[in-house]
Each structure stands twice: as structure tokens, then as C-alpha cells.
Design brief:
Elements lengths: L11 H52 L6 E4 L2 E7 H4 L7 H5 L36 E2 L7 E2 L3 E6 L61 E5 L6 E3 L23 E3 L15 E3 L24 E6 L4 E5 L4 H8 L11
Parallel strand pairs: 5-8, 7-9
Antiparallel strand pairs: 1-2, 3-4, 5-6, 6-10, 10-11
């Protein structure tokens, strides 16, 4: 008699072994997949910075000057439009640029046609590694667009109007500080050591005597971190329209006074104040805005020569501050 072929099934132990093997394989592959995705995001971030470098240099070719850090006069920052607005026409945003009214104070966010600047965030302004909202409160009267890139202001912090009230930054005081100044309160470009000045002062390529390959042009910032003041650490407003608060503002900048990636985890809109700083009035505080990213180990920058570099957060701090200055005369080694 012919015997029937009997197919044996998996035993419970065998099934558990197979599941365990699959789990191990997934555990081994997942970090590799995540690393590949982050590498792609970092490459896109690098391309964004290259686009910034190209746009800024095209602006310089057209006007023989770098774009102003902010538009306004000494003692009066109105209309509070940043360099990000100036380069729109060189970033494939000509239609937006042509509708900007440079006579309107950007704090009046409901005034057309500049209202649109509060509600748009061009793709080149966003680092894909940062999941912070592109626009906060979209479709409302408090809409606010953000960016992940800020212009280099140099190696100085920013004082409030009554700067004698607050102590200097005791943790990361800049040995190469270009002067403590308040945005919109000076037209002396020498008081701001970076590329982006303010108060309608002009900085040209010839002013970068340290060399364009040794001077930061722009870098990454985190819009989720608002600010820290007094003698505490630092933060970055990360927005881009009007002074102290939007993508197109003078707030669209950062300095090298604090180390790279200092304070990358911040509650939205949280202000951290040193108890020694009194009173707690916004205009009397001393601020520092630092470059930071969510890339592990450092931050990406575009230098004034247009090249993009990933700079380690372990870089010597004095060297890093020297990279922020355009004409401090300091010799910068390999970084």
C-alpha cells in the first residue's frame, strides 16, 4: 500500500526562532536605512546652502554689495526687512519680490502686499532633517513662516538698549567680539564683524580681507529655539521677515559667539533668562544667536567663496569665532 505524503508544519519553537531571526535582521537594517535617509536629507540641506551662496553672489554681481542684513536707518529698523527679502529675485522668487512694499513696517503683518511674506516658506529655506512647522498658525492673523538658515553676523552678541543692566555672556564670552551692538541701532559696518550688517551699511567682497574661504556666509539655525538672554547660553529666532521674529527679518541671522549646536532642544517660544539680569524687560536684555542643526556632530555652512562645509561641533571655539569675522586678521587653520 502506498503511504500518503505527510507535510510536517513548523513547531512553535521553530516559528519563534524564525521570528527572532527576522527581528534581528530588521534591527540590523533599520539603522542603515535611517542613516541613508539622513544622508539624503543632509545632501538636500547642502544643496539649499549652495543655492543661498549662488543667490547671494548673484546679488553682489548685480549691486556690487552683499545684501543688507536688514533694511532701515540708524536708531530705526523700519521696515525691518532682512537680506532674505533682498535675494528673493535671485532665488527664483521674482514674483514674490516684485510685490514687496519696502516702505511698510513688516510688523504690520496684515498689510498687503507684504502679508504674503508671513505665510510662505520657499523650499530652499527648509532643512529636511528638521520637522519644525514650515509656517506656524497658517491661515490666521498670527501666521509666521520660518527658515533653517541664517546669515553670519560675526562673532558678537547683541545688547539690549540698556545694556549696562545685564551682565555679559559669561559662559561663552567672545574673545574676538566685533563689538556688542543692537540690531537696527547703528550704521557703522565695523561694529558687526560678519557679512550681514544692518542700518543700511554696505559690505562688499573687498571688505572680506580674511579671505572668502575663511569667512562664513550663512549657516543652519533651528527655528524651534527662540532666544536666551542675560549671561546664559544662546538661541536663535529662526524666522525671516521682520526684526526679532520672522524668516525675512534681521532675526534671520546668527553669530559665532556660542559653540555649534549649543542648545538644540528648546521648547517653542521659551525664553531662558539669567536670574542676575534684571529687570526682565525685552529691550534691556542681551542676546546671542548661534548656529545649530539636527545633523549629528555639527552644522552645515556656506562660506563666502560659495563652498559648503560641514563643521564639527568639536571645532576649536576661537577658530570658529574667527570664521565668523570677515576682517579680524586671525589666521585660520584646517577646519
Amino acid at each position: 500500500m502506498k503511504k500518503d505524503n505527510v507535510r510536517s508544519a513548523f513547531t512553535l519553537v521553530e516559528l519563534l526562532v524564525v521570528i527572532a531571526i527576522i527581528g534581528v535582521l530588521v534591527g540590523l537594517l533599520l539603522p542603515a536605512v535611517q542613516a541613508a535617509r539622513e544622508a539624503a536629507r543632509r545632501m538636500q540641506c547642502s544643496n539649499n546652502l549652495k543655492q543661498y551662496g549662488l543667490g547671494i553672489h548673484n546679488y553682489h554681481s548685480a549691486y556690487s554689495t552683499f545684501p543688507l542684513g536688514a533694511t532701515g536707518k540708524a536708531g530705526n529698523a523700519v521696515p525691518r526687512l532682512s537680506w532674505q527679502v533682498r535675494i528673493l529675485a535671485f532665488m527664483e522668487q521674482t514674483a514674490v519680490y516684485n510685490n514687496v512694499d519696502f516702505s511698510v513696517d513688516m510688523r504690520r503683518r496684515q498689510v498687503a502686499p507684504n502679508k504674503i511674506l508671513w505665510e510662505i516658506s520657499p523650499p530652499y529655506t527648509r532643512c529636511p532633517s528638521d520637522g519644525y512647522p514650515t509656517v506656524l498658525n497658517p491661515g490666521t492673523t498670527s501666521a509666521r513662516a520660518h527658515a533653517n538658515y541664517g546669515g553670519s553676523l560675526g562673532s558678537q552678541n547683541v545688547d539690549g538698549i540698556n545694556k549696562s543692566i545685564c551682565h555679559p555672556f559669561s559662559v561663552f564670552e567672545a574673545p574676538l567680539a566685533g563689538g556688542n551692538v543692537r540690531f537696527g541701532q547703528t550704521s557703522n559696518k565695523g561694529q558687526v564683524s560678519g557679512i550681514f550688517s544692518f542700518g543700511n551699511s554696505v559690505i562688499r567682497i573687498g571688505d572680506v580681507t580674511d579671505g572668502t574661504s575663511n569667512t562664513l556666509l550663512a549657516g543652519e539655525v533651528l527655528p524651534g529655539c527662540q532666544w536666551v538672554y542675560g549671561s546664559s547660553r544662546d538661541t536663535q529666532a529662526g524666522t525671516w521677515i521682520n526684526t526679532w521674529g520672522n524668516l525675512f527679518s534681521i532675526g534671520a541671522g546668527a553669530s559665532t559667539i556660542t559653540p555649534i549646536n549649543e542648545m538644540t532642544t528648546c521648547e517653542n517660544s521659551k525664553k531662558i533668562r539669567d536670574p542676575a539680569c534684571n529687570p526682565a524687560s525685552g529691550d534691556t536684555m542681551q542676546y546671542a544667536y548661534g548656529f545649530k542643526s539636527l545633523h549629528t556632530g555639527g552644522c552645515q555652512f556656506v562660506l563666502t567663496d560659495g563652498s559648503v562645509r560641514f563643521i564639527s561641533e568639536a571645532i576649536d571655539h576661537v577658530m570658529y569665532q574667527s570664521l565668523g569675522g570677515r576682517a579680524d586678521g586671525n589666521v585660520v587653520g584646517e577646519f
